[in-house]
Amino acid sequence: MKLKTFFYLVACAASMHVSAGVVTHEFNNGDDLSAWQSDRCAPASFAISNNELVLGIDGAEVTKCDADPFFSTQGMKLNTGMSDYLGIDMFIDGTNWTADGRYGGIWGVAYDASDAISYYPILEYFVTNGVGSLQAWDGDNGWVDIGFRGAALDSFNNLAFSISGGVISYLVNGNNVFTTSNGRHSYFGEVILNAKNAGTSYNVRYDNLTYNTPASVPEPATIAILGAGLLFVGAARKRHQTTAK
Predict the structure, then answer these.
(1) Are 180 and 161 in contact (CB under 8 A)?
(2) Which of 2, 8, 45, 57 has the most crowded Cβ, counting Cβ within 10 A?
(3) At a CB cut-off of 8 Å and minimum separation 6, what does 7 contact?
């Protein structure tokens, strides 16, 4: 193998890295939703309308999946690779979301270094005693009321999560509103769009789902080529030294 051939193979190997970077789903009319799968129980509808993603809850289906309230949270999930950021714009409908209860939100599925699920970060909109607010799910202590913290009624608001140093930060319109107390989290594997069915029909409007997959390590094929190349360089150098004696 000539050195020129070796470096050509190294260049090819570099292109075998898993693709990385920011991905945004704009939910324009005609976009494909076939990669989404139901989570717990599928909502009554999940479709793009007027260049937005609309998740529909039918109150008549409150016991469609199971009598257990756990399954009355209906949603759809999408694989996001190994992401360190998840975010989406959600319309908080202050005009129609007036009855007490839990409404729409965003869930993440966090994994630790062993690729086991470590946490479910959640941001959702609640109405309690006639007053609306955002709440964060704390896996250790339950729901934490965080108020509005910069969010606005009858408007799209960005709800997001990020992982840094093993800790998950919850963001509302770019403001950090909650942080997990432990640092065992490595990445997000899925995003879930969920809404609670408590017997009331309503829609949740979403737009601009964004997630970021950092640069990855080389795939095994890349490592094998690089290893073989280093062995070749070592052998070539040894032959050159022997010839020169």
Answers:
(1) no
(2) 57
(3) none
How are beta strands 117-119 and 131-138 bridged, if at all? unpaired
Determine phi and psi for 121, rounding to 5 degrees: -70, 135
d(CA 143, CA 141): 7
Determine contact, residues 214/203, Cβ cutoff 8 Å. Answer: no
Report CA-CA distances (Å) from 110 to 23, 94, 188, 203, 243.
Answer: 18, 30, 4, 27, 57
Cα angle 144, 148, 210 (rounded to 5 degrees) comes to 90
Q: Which residues of the chain have pLDDT under 70?
A: 1-20, 66-71, 215-245
pLDDT digits (tens, 9 = 90+) for 31-87: 999 999 999 889 999 999 999 999 999 999 888 776 666 667 899 999 999 999 999
Other Cβ atoms less than 10 A from the Cβ of 141: the count is: 8
- Nearest Cα neighbor of 91 from 193, 179, 162, 161 is 193
Residue 54, both tokens = 């609309």
Residue 69 has a pLDDT of: 64
- What predicted TM-score, i.e. pTM, was given to this entire model? 0.78
Give the distance, in angstroms, between the CA of residue 170 and the centroid of all CA atoms in the same chain.
12
Half-sphere exposure for 208 (CA within 13 Å, toward CB)? 9
What separation in angstroms does the CA of 156 have from each of 23, 52, 141, 244? 20, 11, 28, 73
Angstrom distances, CA of residue 76 to CA of 8, 36, 55, 133, 214: 44, 6, 9, 23, 24
**Residues sharing a CB contact under 8 Å with residue 216, sequence separation 6 or more, in sequence order:** 17, 18, 20, 82
Q: Give the model's pLDDT for residue 189.
A: 97
